[in-house]
Design brief:
Layout lengths: L18 H13 L7 H12 L6 H13 L3 H6 L7 H15 L4 H5 L1 E4 L2 E4 L12 H10 L3 E5 L5 H9 L4 E6 L2 H13 L6 E5 L10 E6 L14 H6 L13 H13 E10 L5 H11 L4 E6 L5 E7 L1
Parallel strand pairs: 3-4, 3-6, 4-5, 6-7
Antiparallel strand pairs: 1-2, 7-9, 8-9
Length: about 300
């Protein structure tokens, strides 16, 4: 799975924020860990501390305070006068300091929503992005009975498909054993572990066809664009799930070869790609599958997002 600099991160355009402002913010939090007594003051303090690292500091402060106290956001907003215990203040101050240091919010809470489902995430997996929901929507339109999810990461695509396609048999692969552990956990949380077969593998190498569909959100950040990624992504999310090599399409080329081996006649390949990679990805697909129908689907922002190949 992947992320890119233009639209897949928490703070587009704020990846390399002013280091001095960030340093002062972190130091202040650690020296004076959340010197407040109630929810209202905690949210004011938190929003101010997080302003340098996110476009939604108040919202993130609410999420972190809910995580620190065990309360819902609804309760927090309804009771601004509620006092915080010393332990709650300490937990909240620690979370603020870590978020201000650039650690992505979902890694701090351990949760993220994707396609209407809540997923566990750890630093072993890429954080699911809303853009990847386009991949899931396109797959659901086809109603496949057998699906291979290559590079499953957190399992968000495989699990979302299994939940919506109760008759489908799904195979999910990942090179990372740690990532697969997270994916299995998410499959169990949503009651679909018995219909997803998880495999530690390099792409789809151990599998045999024919299957109806191959889906993947592979690494597609171009090697030459790595330095331009937001710091929170470069420093905290797994590079294995991000780096697509020179030009960003190294794994896409290999997926096209797997598709030729695995897909039945009429089968479908759906691969997430980076904004601007559409023309080259389509050309690669047409070179491998001259008679196939090849299409580039945009995401909701109108950017190139999914390569579709129908054999």
């Amino acid at each position: 799975m992947s992320a890119e600099a233009d639209n897949r991160h928490e703070v587009p355009g704020k990846g390399d924020f002013h280091r001095r402002e960030k340093s002062v913010c972190i130091r202040a939090i650690r020296v004076h860990p959340c010197p407040i007594s109630d929810i209202a003051a905690a949210l004011r303090e938190g929003a101010a501390a997080l302003a340098p690292v996110t476009d939604t500091p108040r919202l993130e402060a609410e999420v972190l305070l809910a995580h620190a106290t065990g309360l819902t956001r609804t309760t927090i907003l309804a009771h601004p006068e509620r006092p915080l215990s010393p332990d709650e203040r300490a937990r909240y101050g620690d979370l603020l300091a870590r978020r201000a240091a650039g650690i992505p919010l979902p890694y701090l809470t351990g949760r993220v929503e994707f396609f209407g489902l809540e997923f566990v995430v750890t630093p072993d997996v890429l954080i699911p992005r809303p853009e990847t929901e386009t991949l899931v929507e396109l797959a659901l339109e086809r109603g496949p009975r057998t699906v291979v999810d290559v590079g499953t990461g957190s399992g968000c695509v495989a699990v979302a498909l299994a939940v919506r396609l109760p008759r489908a048999r799904i195979y999910a692969t990942d090179l990372s054993r740690a990532a697969l552990s997270v994916a299995v956990m998410n499959a169990r949380r949503h009651g679909v572990a018995d219909r997803i077969h998880f495999l530690q593998a390099d792409l789809a190498s151990p599998l045999r066809g024919p299957v109806d569909m191959l889906v993947s959100n592979p690494p597609y950040v171009a090697e030459e664009e790595w330095a331009s990624l937001p710091e929170s992504v470069r420093e905290h999310e797994p590079r294995l799930a991000l780096d697509g090599g020179p030009g960003g399409l190294r794994v896409v080329r290999r997926l096209l070869a797997d598709a030729a081996r695995l897909l039945r006649p009429g089968g479908v390949l759906l691969v997430e790609i980076g904004a601007g990679q559409g023309p080259e990805a389509a050309a690669l697909a047409r070179a491998v599958f001259p008679p196939a129908r090849v299409r580039i689907h945009p995401d909701l922002a109108g950017r190139d997002r999914v390569l579709e190949v129908v054999l």
